[in-house]
Specification:
Chain lengths: 310, 320
């Protein structure tokens, strides 16, 4: 499980990177890290996320019990927190803490795959649309991007789920596709703002093919804003995944996903007790809040307008 | 002015058209064969072929799209795939709760977020302000269904103040209706309120640093006048713009919230269709319903720009 709060090798600040060379790049990354670390909530968020990442990766060894093992005795289900079940047990007598720990795997998987997919689809499209430009860009690509971005993610994801059926794989794929227009628009905007720069002009003048210009001269400028967007969108993606599995259109039982755990505990809230809600609820809020703080911190650290470089 | 209104109207309609194409393609090109669903998994190939023919699934895509769009424009939503129910009838019952939930939530968001955001902007950097903006990120991190469940446990069960589940139409009993709506509205609007509060705060801080604010203060205008007439008036455009973006969040929030509170609206209908029947004929209409809601709110936002900014009214301001 990789950790998204890691600006290191990905960070290349706009415009300066090409001029600075590798030594300058290292200095820039250090400056960004320094500002990020000074932001207390962001640092705390990063630490929590690293912790959750480690726990998710080591779930089979960390979890105190088998997340799928039911205990169907009379006293097994709906146990309140105790030393043997720190977060209690659910309606089937399964250990809620273990299920919450395994649920972190689902959350991380969705975040990483969806963002990877969104970047992989969106950034090349945005580079192409911005660099090649013209009618295709203005009239077709950007109109579709606008229409997709106008619709709330949940509505689109639900519609596609109706066609493909609910599953973990589909959730990851669909969320990634839904988010790709945002990255396309971002990349396009950056390209439009720099494609008249002298070094791009020069590259074109010496006969560099468009693919090389896009890869060597345009792409590095896109990296930093994409990284900021990725850290900000992670929180929304967790919320979307949780909402999906809550309403039953995401990850299917018995696989533990936080939204689905809350949903099945909610069904018995009024007749039994609400303890099984607590574990996944805390996990969702903790993860989303950490991503929000980290996202804010990354944006503040990487946005050159908010910072005195000298 | 008229030109501005017409342009915005046309671009809204264009946006809706694109959504209709996307929604149709999503439901008709993606894998999943409705004729198998109808005829049953064990159906013979002949029966499946016959069902396809009957549903018009063998016709070319553009023709099917045109047929759907033309009926939609005439206000005919068609029948559901399996039960052959009249979709107009279903939508007529399901739309009022969702629209009420959406409108009430948008109202609450504005009434809470703007004043609190202004208060937070008064002393930037103060301890109280730091606490407030941290709390805003916090409020932004709780999914609607958890807010809803927390409200149900606290207000509905422990304090026993409000009814927990269900819905009473407003024309049958307005008081009961509002009682049932109170908790869902809070659940839907919390996230959005936090976002709009942040936006209001930063827009106000920007404006309050301007020279004309200092001038207004220097010439001895009362603080309230400076704040509201000089400050807020100029901060409103970015605030209103963000408000428009959030319409989508409000309506998608209703999908989850209606499920939590058992409100028989469009959101719950959407969820049940997706989970239970996967009826593509219904889903494409549902997507259009949400698109229309969002477009209407955004159109209202667009049309408020000329009222807020005289430069747009006279056509000199460009697009806001």
């Amino acid at each position: 499980m990789s950790d998204p709060a890691r600006p290191a090798d990905a960070a290349t600040p706009p415009l300066s990177a090409a001029a600075l060379g590798d030594g300058g790049r290292v200095r820039e990354v250090r400056a960004i890290l320094r500002i990020f670390v000074r932001n207390r909530p962001a640092l705390a968020g990063a630490i929590v996320l690293i912790g959750m990442g480690v726990v998710a990766a080591l779930a089979p060894w960390v979890a105190p019990a088998d997340p799928l093992l039911p205990n169907l005795t009379l006293e097994g289900a709906f146990q309140p927190p105790s030393w043997s079940h720190v977060a209690g047990t659910d309606h089937l007598g399964r250990d809620v803490l273990s299920r919450t720990i395994f649920g972190a795997r689902v959350a991380w998987q969705v975040v990483i795959v969806a963002i990877g997919l969104a970047v992989g689809i969106g950034v090349p499209l945005g580079l192409l649309a911005g660099y090649v430009g013209g009618k295709l860009d203005e009239l077709v690509i950007m109109r579709i991007v606008d229409a997709v971005m106008m619709m709330p993610g949940l509505v689109l994801v639900l519609a596609i789920t109706a066609a493909l059926g609910p599953s973990l794989t589909n959730t990851m794929l669909v969320v990634g596709v839904i988010w790709s227009p945002a990255y396309a628009r971002l990349a396009r905007g950056v390209v439009l703002s720099i494609k008249q720069e002298v070094y791009v002009e020069a590259a074109r003048a010496v006969g560099a093919p468009p693919t090389r210009i896009m890869r060597r001269h345009l792409l590095p400028n896109v990296v930093a804003p994409v990284f900021v967007l990725a850290s900000l969108s992670a929180a929304s993606i967790i919320l979307l995944e949780a909402a999906l599995s809550f309403i039953g259109a995401g990850v299917q039982p018995p696989t533990p996903a936080w939204g689905g755990m809350v949903s099945s505990a909610y069904d018995t809230l009024l007749s039994r007790n609400g303890w099984p809600i607590l574990g996944p609820a805390v996990a969702i809020v903790l993860m989303v809040m950490s991503f929000n703080f980290v996202g804010d911190g990354v944006r503040d650290a990487m946005d050159p307008r908010l910072r005195n470089v000298r | 002015m008229l030109r501005f209104i017409v342009t915005r109207l046309l671009s809204s309609i264009f946006g809706l058209w694109i959504v209709s194409v996307l929604s149709f393609l999503l439901m008709n090109v993606l894998p999943g064969d409705p004729s198998i669903q109808i005829a049953g998994i064990n159906a013979t190939p002949e029966l499946i072929e016959h069902t396809k023919e009957r549903l018009g699934l063998n016709d070319p895509l553009p023709e099917r799209y045109a047929r759907w769009l033309l009926r939609l424009l005439q206000g005919d939503l068609g029948l559901t795939l399996l039960a052959q129910l009249d979709q107009n009838e279903i939508f007529r019952h399901r739309i009022p709760p969702t629209v009420e939930l959406g409108v009430l939530s948008l109202f609450v968001v504005v009434v809470v977020a703007v004043p609190v955001g202004i208060l937070a902007a008064l002393r930037p950097g103060s301890k109280r302000e730091v606490v407030a903006s941290t709390a805003m990120i916090g409020g932004n991190s709780v999914p609607e269904f958890l807010t809803g469940i927390a409200l149900i446990i606290l207000i509905g069960v422990e304090l026993d103040l409000l009814p927990v589940l269900g819905y009473v139409p407003i024309w049958e009993d307005p008081v009961e209706n509002l009682k049932h709506m109170a908790m869902p509205v809070i659940a839907v609007s919390l996230t959005t309120t936090a976002l709009l509060m942040r936006q209001t705060r930063s827009a106000m801080i920007n404006v309050l640093n301007d020279d004309y604010i200092r001038t207004a203060r220097a010439k001895g205008l009362p603080a309230r006048v400076v704040l509201l007439r000089h400050g807020l008036r100029n901060a409103l455009i970015p605030i209103v713009t963000v408000f428009g973006f959030q319409a989508g969040l409000i309506f998608s929030g209703s999908v989850v919230t209606e499920t939590v509170f058992g409100i028989p609206g469009m959101g719950r209908f959407f969820v049940r269709t997706v989970v239970e029947t996967q009826d593509y004929l219904v889903v494409q209409n549902l997507v259009m319903f949400f698109a229309v809601c969002i477009v209407v709110v955004n159109l209202l936002v667009d049309l408020s720009y000329p009222l807020l900014d005289p430069r747009i009214r006279s056509g000199r301001g460009g697009s806001a």
